Amino acid sequence: MNLILLGAPGAGKGTQATKISDRYGLVHISTGDIFRANIKNGTKIGMLAKSYIDKGELVPDEVTCDIVKDRLTWDDCKKGYLLDGFPRNLFQAAELDKFAKIDAVVNINIDFKLLMDRLCGRRVCKDCGESYHVSTLNGATTCSRCGGELYQRRDDNPETVKSRLEVYNEQTAPLINYYTMQGNILNFTGSEAPAEVLFAQVAESLDKLAR
Length: 211
Description:
five-stranded parallel sheet, single chain, three-stranded antiparallel sheet, globular, alpha/beta
């Protein structure tokens, strides 16, 4: 299976991506990971991407698409993959159609007010990266897993979160209609329910697709 995972920041895509990849033996591909790997290996396209990143600019859509196109030619993608963070807009989606066949798009819908609360209340361990929410910490300031210090990420403040959600709404949300028109979107509602509950619903749909 070749899948795309859609959802606004804070919708829980990371957790679902891990569960989906593990269950179906898919390669989890995020654009951030691809950029870092190409830059680390000093590839031509990686250096091109770095030239924009170093200037604080967004990597152009054309460069992003070329990097993803190259990644999908690797042998580990032959058994299927899960695209996370790509496509981000309609241009990237149209380009993806030219070099890949997508079997389904898993879209996690969630109320933006809930996302604001979820992201602004998030606390992360400096040592192991474990994530918490202030509502469940009962005042704790250290990680229950490793004892590391908990902190609020710089981009988890209300102003930045609001901006990130607005960007998603303007650029990425139109993909929902794009893939609805193609007839391959699977919609799910994210909420305060445990991630396992959401994944059970996702797996029920994907199991049918995988048969």
